Amino acid sequence: MVDAPITRPRTRRDGQFDRLRDRETSMQGKAKRGGRFLGKFLSNRLALVGFVIFAIICLMSLFAPLLAQHDPMSPNLRAIAQPPSVEHWFGTDKTGRDIFARVLYGGRVSILVGLGSALLSALIGVIIGVYSGYVGGWLDWIAMRVSEIFMSFPQIILVLLLVAILGQSLLNLIVIFTLTGWGGIYRMARARMLSIREEEYVQALRSFGLGPARIAYKHMLPNALGPIMVNITLSTAAFILQEAGLSFLGLGVPLSIPTWGNILNAAQDLRVLEQNWWIWLPVGATISLFVLSVNFIGDGLRDATDPSQQG
What we know:
mainly alpha; MetI-like fold; single chain
């Protein structure tokens, strides 16, 4: 007769060892996923090129006081509409202001408007979409109807209407872009929650008695961050283009503040468009490069977070 193995009673120290082992296993899994994500992103050449361009433009705008030799706001009547030269790399505008300095300082405002509006709209959309998508019921119904109201209007028409009501200012423009842009990411976050909430681990967490907010934001949201990050990049590019378009029409940020759109505003004059190409071409090329870089980054994030393409 074989003696049964002797099992000693579990002690408090055994429980501590089990928790440490589980935590270490979880950290190793996260590190493995993070390394796979980074490797997938770095293998995308367009994403790398986009990130480099994005970083260069952001850093040059951030350190504009160190790179720009001229004041972007000071007119110089002796250097009106001069072509690019050693002293003025991008030339000067119709009042003699250095365009290179205005592009650098304008990038601060334009990137702030685009990225800030995208992050705020994503924050609102994710907070509402994640919770209402998981809980459902009357809260989900109200959030869906409100988003449909905002999305039923053409966004540019709604933006123009709100600008006319609230007035032109940097803060108002960020608020308007946030109010008109949260609906899309809300619907995306809600759709992801409707899909994830039927998973087995969510059912298990619910059976353990965890609250809906903790389940939705702590355990379900990390599994939906991929599409959300991609949407933020696309929204950033869209908001920058909208700001440039509104400022070109004179309806965006006040003309006294240098932005990429306000620099393009001078190209409304057909003579400037034909004869003074340096007034609009450098800033137009900067906007195009920045928007392309953001889109390339978004494509790289999409490929890196797509489970069907993970090795």
